[in-house]
Each structure stands twice: as structure tokens, then as C-alpha cells.
Amino acid sequence: MSEEKNDIQGNQDNTPTGRPTPENDKKVSQGRRDVLKAMATVPVLGAMAYGVYRKKKSETVNRDAAQMFRFRSDVAPYAATSSDAGIIRLGIIGFGIRGEQLMQAIGFATPQYVENLIIQNKANSNNTRYQDFMEQDDLRVEVTAVCDIFDTYADQAMDAGANIYREGINGKFGPRPKRYLHYKELLASPDVDAVIIASPDHWHGTMAMDALRAGKHVYLEKPMTWTVPETYALRTIAKNNPHLVFQLGHQNRQIEAYERARQIIEKGLLGKVTLIETGTNRNSPNGAWVYRIHEDANPKTIDWEQFEGDPDRVKEYMDYMTSAGLAKYVGPEPRDKFSLERFFRWRCWWDYSTGLSGDLLTHEYDAMNQILKLGIPSSASSSGGVYYFKDGRTVPDVLQTVFEFKDKDMTMLYSATLANQFNRSRKIMGHDATMEVGNTLTVTVDQRSDQYRQQIDQGIIKPGEPFYTYLPGQSVDAVSTATERYFAERGLLYSFIGGKRYNTTFLHIKEWLDCIRTGEEPSCGIDQAFEEAITAHMGTRAYLEGRTMYWDKDREKITRE
Amino acid sequence: MFTPNWSAYGYLIDSKGIFASLFVNLAENPEMLSMANFINTWGLTLVGLSLVLGLFTNIGYVGAICFLLLYYLSHPPLLFAEYILPAEGSYLWVDKNLILMVTMVVLLLFPTSKIIGFDRLIFRKNIVRSNKL
After folding, report:
1. Which of A70, A498, B68, B122 could disulfide-pair with A473, CB 3.0 to 4.6 Å?
2. Which residues of A touch B52 (CB under 8 A)?
3. Which residues pair with A93 in a beta bridge?
4. pLDDT tens-digit readout, A352-410
């Protein structure tokens, strides 16, 4: 206090000449001291500013290095179906687990399912599946016909088809679609423009061929076929009817990151790719196809005769199995004997199934075929066995298949177990870098890379550390913070960045419907489907016969040498 | 400020404890979220500048306490509460946010900025003025 008083006096005593007085001296030094003390922390800011400058500079260098990983934002923007687009009348064949999912994906769910969504949403407001389902775009389709050989599933399919306002129990419903007892009756109906087929594997090819013959567009669940001969037959029929749109149900064709992965390969950013590693890990009875047996199911509610399969297909299957000495894989129960286990868990027996090859390898192969344009492999070798689920199944629960692509100097390894769910990423390994492909992409540069030698030596690229990460839907994709990556990998980012998150199955069916309206080719048409089916059959035959199977490109035949 | 497209979304959506739904709602409303992002970015910058320079520190301390309180409430160190970004230690009830909050209160009561910092100049003048009157 007294110091301030002095200051005031100092001011008053100041002489007009400005000659320094002792008081004046004191004031100056006191003022200087104050200013110094006031500004004592400013250098801290300076140091911080320098730090920020250094950080920005190094980020710029990294960004320059990442320029080669820059792409146009070329993923086609989502376009909703126009409200005056013509209505497409759909027939649904098969309303089991997958059939129900497909119908939900296009906005038709059973009232019970919607009711459950409402209850979940009430219990936990963070669960927005109900809102997502309600907000999903109208695809301008009508479900006019359903066919399922189990009465309960057929009833549920009709309920779902009539639920055009997406209501819960006691809601308002539209007209019920007609139920057909036999799929051929459904195909003969003039009220059906296009069919979605989600039957067991042993019916896929036959139903698709009959549908095309009946003049219907086809969305067929994967795998395309159960036997090898029908694979060629279906391709011929599809090629002979180019005005009918055929789409195979590999919904992963719609994953945005795969398109970016394809561009990275195309630009040669990984160098020469020699090895691809893919796999499946699951660890639950449901994941191993031990599905629930419905309590209403019995010989009266199930049309077993129709379940058995098309006689021509069964003959093709039996001909191959007996001629190749594989009788031990047939059955073990007779085909005409009613069995709830075989009806609901058909994937466990070769009599109806295509095993791990058809169910899960096909997804992995199709993803890689989309990214690398692999085509049919030159050879396939498989091994494995029924190692965990010793429940009488004939289809293995552990399978390794190695595909060689001789003309591409490349191997693709598929490795699967149904009794462990450790997360193994898909890896595409090149001389210069490795790309891990999932919902996000990560590129890690190789220590011994030639392409990136200079950048490695300059310290711009740190080999062994993820160099490029792609988070779908984000505008800045070359440099992203660890936190952002962390959230994205746990799936937390998508709904926010895209503003809206889309179900890939919805997009895949929408693409098929768009193609029906525009006459364009879908992304998983008959050529891609043929490659998928032949590749899966080669893997399966290699396992069954215990020998390498080859693809004769010129004759388009699977051979043993 | 320097991270393009930074958002508090992930942090907010990961909230736990009794106020979690409040923060999640904040994250899910796009307008509220962009406001929260703006306030966080610029508020923290201003608080930082205030405390480093010792300028208007009373406002700075109160601001810092508000931010810390919100962080504490959205990510309380509870038993069995696990966060996507893990803490560097193993805390129960008392975490860094809480300690920092207490520190801010102490500094609010014993303002060091009036010894070292711009507040020294500002508040001296005020005192001078009050003496004149």
C-alpha cells in the first residue's frame, strides 16, 4: 500500500523539466519491476508456440509423404430411391434366419421384431435400432408372394410382408402377401417381378435357374451353387437372359473401405503382392450352425419332400460322391427320413451344405476378388476335420484352404476354426507394404521396401508402424489421431461421420433393385458369382478328396492334375 | 484447434455414471455437439492463455473448474467403470480432474497472478484508482 502512495506522490512531485529526483528513480525501477513480473510467464507461451510450430511442420512433412495415398472422394454418394420410381413386386423364397434378415434389411419385419426393437429402445435410449429401422429409406417394393416349407416361417413371412408401416403388435397392416406351398407356384405367379432366394444351399442353383426361366429377376444368397454341374448351367441361363438382373448376396461388395483398398492395389502402393491371408474365427454353437430347433416343427408343419431337393441335383451330387469314392461323407441318415436336426441345422451335412467353403470362405474370397480381381485360382489344396463339434456332422469345423494363382504369382490362404474367436485381420502382403482390410484399412510399410526406401531413410516413413489409415466417410484420411482410430475400430465413429449409417445388406439389395430399374449391371453379377462358386467347389473337392484340385482355364473344368 | 475434424463425440458417447445419459444426449444432438466442440476448443484455449499469462485469472480459474467438473462428471472414476481411453493409473473416486479442481480452488483463494502475471499490473492500477477516490 505504502509503495502505491509513494507513486502518487512521485507523480505530483515531478518537476516540469523532468529532472530525475530520488522519488522519480524509485518509480521507474518499481514500474520496470512490475512489468517484468507481469510478463515473467510470457516466454512459456513462446516455448509453447515453438512446439506447436514444430508439430505442424512435421505433420506437413507426413502429409506430403501421404500424398501418394490421396484419392479422389470417388465413393458414389448414396442416392435414395425416387418416390415416383415404379413399384417392384417381390417374392420371397425361404424365411429362415437369413431370409428374415434380408426382409428386415429392406424394411419388412414381423410385428414381433418391431415390438422387440421398441422395448429395447424404451429400456435403453442409447439403443437406436428402432429409429434406424423406421428411418430407413423406402425402396418402392411390395412383397406380394412368400414361400417357405415350414408353416410357422411362412406365417411370419406373410406377417412381415404385410407390415408396410413397420408397426409392432396390434399395429395397422397392409394386404398380406400370398403364401405358395411350392416355390414353382410362386415363380408362376404373374404378381411377382423379382425373387429373393434364401433357401438352404442345395436349392440355390435350381431355384435361381427356375426363376430366370420364369422371367424373374434374382437376388440369390451365397454360395451360388451346391453342385459343380449346375454352376455352368446357371451361368448359361443367366447369360441367355441379360434383361434379367442376377445379383449374388455378397453384401460385402458394398463396404466402402474395399473400394479404397482396390485403388491402393491398382496404384501399386503395396508393391508386388505374393500372399493373402484370410480366415474365419467363430466360437459358439450358433456360429457352428447348431441353430435352434423350432418347437412348432414336426412332419405335419414341414414339407419334407420338398426339402429333400431337386432330383437332378441330388443325382449330380450322388454321382460325384460315389465316383470319387466319397460315400463316407454322404448321409449318414437316408435322405427321405424326416429329421428336425437336418432341417434346421442343414449346414452340418454335405447332403445339403457346402460347408465352410460355401458359407464363409466365399465371403473372404469375394472380398479379395473385388479388391484384387483374382479370378478363379489355378489350384486349391485343403485340409481340416471335425475336431470340436463331434455331433455327428460330416462337414469339418476346422478348415485350411490354399489357393494358388499361378498367372498372378500369388497365394491366398484361408484358415478357419469354429472353436475360437481370436480376431485375425485379413492381410494383403506386398513387397513394399502390408494392407490390413476390415471396416477400416491400415497400410504398414515394409522395412525392406524398395519403393519407399528414400522416405524410410529420411525418417518420413517409420516401417513397421501403420502409415496410412482409412476411416470410411472421413474427409481427411491421411493423418488421423490415435484416438480417432481407436473409436473407429470399435465402430463408434461411423454413425456420426456419415450422418447416417447404412446396413450393407440394405445397400446390396438396393443396388439390385436399382439395376432392375436402370438395366445396369450389379456388382456381384453372374461372372463374379461363377468365379465364387467354382473357387469354393475347388476348395471343397480338395478337402473331400484329400488332393490338390486344378482349374483348366481353357476347358473351364476342375481337374485332378 | 490444430486437429481437423476433431470432435468430442467419442468422448461424450463413452460417458459413464449417473450423468451419462445427459452427455450422450449432448453428443447425439448435432447442434449441441457442434456447440460443445466450439466451447471446448476455444474455452480451453482461453483458460490456458489466462492461466499461463496470469491475466484475468479469476475468470480463468472459474472456467477451468467448470471444464474439470464436466469432465469429472462424464468420466467419473467409479468402481467397474471402464473407458475406451484408459486412465494412466487406477483410480477410485479421486482422479486427476478432481485434484486439479481442488488446485484451482486454492489458486482462486490465493491468487499468485497478482505477484507474477499481468494481473499484477491491472490490479495495482485498480488499487491506485480506489486510493485516489
Report:
1. A498
2. 41, 44-45, 48
3. A147, A197
4. 999 999 999 999 999 999 999 999 999 999 999 999 999 999 999 999 999 999 999 99
pLDDT in tens, A256-277: 788 888 988 988 889 999 999 9
Q: In this predicted structure, what is the pLDDT of residue A133? A: 87
Residue of A nearest to B25 (CA): A126
Annotate A102-121 with b (16+ C-beta within 10 A) or e (fewer): bbbbbbbbbbebbbbbbeeb
Name the residue type at position A63: R
CA–CA gap between residue A305 and residue A310 (Å, rounded): 10
Judge contact between A270 and A434, C-beta under 8 A: yes
Q: State whether A37 and B115 contact (CB < 8 Å).
A: yes
Query: Interhelix angle for A526-545 vs A228-240, to 10°?
Result: 170
Q: How confident is residue A495, by pLDDT bands cut at 50, 70 and 90?
A: very low
Q: How close does chain A come to B93, measured CA to CA in Å?
A: 24
Q: Which of B14, B120, B131 sits opposite A4 (nearest CB)?
A: B131
Which of B52, B85, B128 is nearest residue A45 as measured by Cβ atoms?
B52
Please tell me the distance from the alpha carbon of residue A550 to that of residue A379, in angstroms, as a whole number.
4
Q: Is the ipTM of this complex over 0.85?
A: no
Residue A14 has pLDDT above 80, yes or no: no
Whether pLDDT at A82 is above 60: yes
Q: Do A41 and B53 touch (CB under 8 A)?
A: yes
Q: Which of A361, A374, A350 is nearest to A265 (CA)?
A: A374
Backbone φ, ψ for residue A552 (5° rounding): -90, 105
- Using an 8 Å CB-CB cutoff, list residues of chain B that contact chain A: 2-7, 9-10, 13-14, 21, 24, 49, 52-54, 84-85, 115-121, 124, 127-128, 131-132
